[in-house]
Amino acid sequence: MATITVTKISRVNPATNSSHDTTNSLVLPLTFFDLRWVKFHPTERVIFYKLDKDNSSRESFHSLILPKLELSLSAVLRHYLPLAGRLRWDPQDTKPHILVLPNDSVKLIVAESDADFSIISGKGLRPETEIRSLVPEFPVACDSPSVLALQVTLFPNQGFCIGVAAHHSVMDGKTVVRFIKSWAHLCNHETMSLPENLTPFLDRTVINVPASLDAKILEILLYFSEEKEDVRSLKLPPMEKISPEVVRITLELTPENIEKLRERAKKESTRSQLHLSTFVVANAYLWTCLVKTRGGEVDRPVRFMYAADFRNRLDQPVPETYFGNCVFPLGCYGYKAGVFMGEDGFVNSVEIISDSVKGIASNNIEALCELYVDGTKRVKPGTQSGSVAGSNRFGLYTADFGWGKPVNSEIVSIDRNEAFSMSERRDGPGGVEIGLCLKKCEMDLFISLFKNGLDN
Questions:
Q1: Rounded distance, CA 240 to CA 182, Å?
Q2: pTM
Q3: Which of 344, 355, 400, 444 is catalytic?
C-alpha cells in the first residue's frame, strides 16, 4: 500500500479583479439545473502528468512547478470567483445560493506519494483506495460547505497529479473540465487573461425554465436526504469507506469497436429509426455487460441513468461557456435484469437508450422533469442502478499546464456506485475511454464479458 504524506496545506485567494469590488460579497442563486445535485456526493477527478528528469525532483517541484500552479490557480479563481465561496441556504430564501465573501479562498493540499507513478497513472487494474487518496476529502457534515477543494500530489522523480473535489450543485462535468483547462492555460502561457472559449459565463438569467420546476426538484431532494426533518440542511449523505477489494480499470472502445457494435445493432434490431450515436452504442454495451456481471434473478429491477446537456436544448440556447449546471438526469426505468441478460441483451439496451435520447427532443423540460420525479419515486428497493459520468466531448486531454498533456485522467467519484466514466481517448480520434470500479471478482467477469463481446 502506497503512503501519502501531506507536506503543505494552504488557502489560495482569487487574484484581485478590478471588475469585482473586493469589499462586497457575491451572491449567485442556484438554478433549477443546480438543485437536483444539492444532496449529491461531490464530483471527484484526478489528472496525471508525467515529468521529465529535469523537472521531477523534489527541488524542482517545490521551487518551480508548485509556485506556478499556485500563482495560476489564484489567477484562474479571479475568473471563476464562485469557486472560492460556500453554499448557503438562509431561512428567508426558497432555495440555496453560492456566497463569496471578501478574502474567501480555496483549500489546496500538497502531498507526496511513494507509489509507482507508471502503475497508478496507467490503465490497468489498480486498487481504488490508492486512487481515492489522491483527491482531497470533502466536508460532508457542514451546513455551509465550501464548493471546491484541490490536492496536488508529487511522485518524486516521476510525475504529479491534480485531484479535484467539487460540489456537484455548483458545476457540471463540462464546467469542471473547462475550469481545469482554464487553469492549465493560464499556467502554461503565464498570463492573467483567458481566451473567449474558456471564459466562464456567470449570468444566471439565461436559464429560462418555469419557476414551478424548482419546487418539484426541491421536493425530490427528500428522497436523497438523511435529514428528513430539516429539508434545508446542506449536509451531504455520509460516504461509505471504499472496500480494499475494489479495483479500477480503464478500458477503450476504439472507433472500429463502435462501428462493429453499431452494425450489430442494425442487424439484430427489427427497427429502422434507431439513434446509433457513439454515446448510445457505448452505454448500451457497457450497461449490458454490467447487468450480466451482477447476474442473479432475471426478475430483479434495474435502471440506467445519464445526464443530458441542455445548453442547446432550451427555447433560448445557453452559452457553451455557461458556469454551473445545465444538465438534467434522465433514466430508463421499470426494466428487469432479464431484458439485458440474454443473447438479445445488447440490442434491447440499444433500443431502450436510443428511445430515451430521442425523447429529449420530443419533450420539453417540464415533461422530462415529471418523468424523472415519477421514475425516482417508483424505484424499488434493491434496484441495480447504473449510470455514466463524463463525456467523450470534453477534451480534458488538451489541459497542458506546461509539462505536456495528461497521461491519464480518472473520475474518482464513480467508485461509490455502479457507474462508469466516459471520456475521449488520449491517443487517437474517435471512440471512448471508459473507467470502471468493481470488486476484483466482479471485475474479472466484467472484463471477460467486455472482451468476448467485442471478439465475437
A1: 33
A2: 0.96
A3: 400
DSSP three-state, residue 274: coil
Contact between 277 and 323 under an 8 Å Cβ cutoff? The reply is no
Q: Check if 400 is active-site.
A: yes
Same domain, residue pair 191 and 278: no
* Catalytic (active site) residue 79: no
| DSSP one-letter string for 44-95 | EEEEEEE--TTT-SHHHIIIIIHHHHHHHHHHHHHHSGGGGSEEE--TT-SS
216-257: pLDDT as tens digits? 999 888 776 666 667 788 988 888 899 999 999 999 999 999
Q: How far apart are CA 101 and CA 388, in angstroms?
A: 35
Q: Which three cell numbers stand for residue 65?
A: 512547478
Residue 247 and residue 270 in contact, taking contact as beta carbons nearer than 8 Å:
no
Report pLDDT digits (tens) over 28-53: 999 999 999 998 989 999 999 999 99
* CA nearest neighbour of 145 among 231, 40, 72: 40
Number of H-type helices and E-type strands within the chain? 13, 16
Write the CB contacts of 145 (distance below 8 Å, at least 6 apart in sequence): 86, 87, 138, 139, 167, 234, 236
Residues 147 and 285 reside in one and the same domain: no
Position 105 scores a pLDDT of 97
Selecting among 41, 97, 167, 168, the annotated active-site residue is 168
- Looking at the fold, whether 154 and 95 belong to one and the same domain comes out as yes
> How far apart are the C-alpha atoms of 40 and 33, rounded to whole Å?
13
Torsion angle of the four alpha carbons 272, 275, 278, 282, in this order, in degrees rounded to the nearest 10: -80
CATH code, domain carrying 441: 3.30.559.10
Nearest to 419 by CA among 388, 379, 376: 388
